């Protein structure tokens, strides 16, 4: 599928180790997602990470279609990740949600479909259902039914609509709920979590490796600093003086060093940018290696700092970040 490194997942499929993230804050025009995805495919990315909640699957799908039509790639060269949003966890809503994403993306199948978050919202078409006090309206589905109830994720895989299935933003106990489910047919292939130099996810990585689950890291460069979600007083990762010093030593960008640190720990790295120069730079990770001393220095920068703690649903019974990991 790809000329650049992949990791073997527990279902036998392979995931490219660097992915292009397509999330953007609301203030960014949706058309930029289309342009950036085209650039990403042109410079060599073969792993594209999307989600229904990002609201740009139509534009991202158009970019993929154009790059297939002009001969840049074949569909089988690409690895596309989609995500099941929190308003569709009830078993009867899983397959229709996937089919909607496929239609918007103009794809016959996804390579990976993951539960975006263990937090569940009121089932329906409203992406962020709110009550009269502007509080999210929660729901409580057994996440094991989302995984393997009738027409749920395992059946979507059996139907060929998706090749691999996984989760995102799950803590260890939530992963264990699925792993220990009686009659489990397919283990999650991955857990996609916030992961970067300031939140290096050491314990979650060890747990996932012990169960042959791949850790996929988002916000690898810190975050997009979206005012709706991110504490604007939090430190800017790419301004870290130690990271910058290591980058200068290797004649690399700080972003390249931050991503390479994750790659060398066996983590799949997602990076997003709408700047064509940076999109290209962020992909140039395979022609250098960080020595062990630099890896240890960077590991010591960990602050357990979560840029996106999703406090909006901190009172949800399935809020995943009360636990250490």
From TrEMBL:
Residues annotated as site: Lowers pKa of active site Tyr: 83
A family per Pfam: Aldo_ket_red
SUPFAM superfamilies assigned: NAD(P)-linked oxidoreductase
GO molecular function term, any single one: structural constituent of eye lens
Active site, UniProt feature: 54
Location of the NADP-dependent oxidoreductase domain: 18-302
Keyword Hydrolase: no
Positions bound to substrate: 116
Keyword Cell cycle attributed: no
Keywords attached to this entry: Eye lens protein
Matching PROSITE patterns: ALDOKETO_REDUCTASE_1, ALDOKETO_REDUCTASE_2, ALDOKETO_REDUCTASE_3
Family: Belongs to the aldo/keto reductase family.
Protein name as catalogued: Rho crystallin
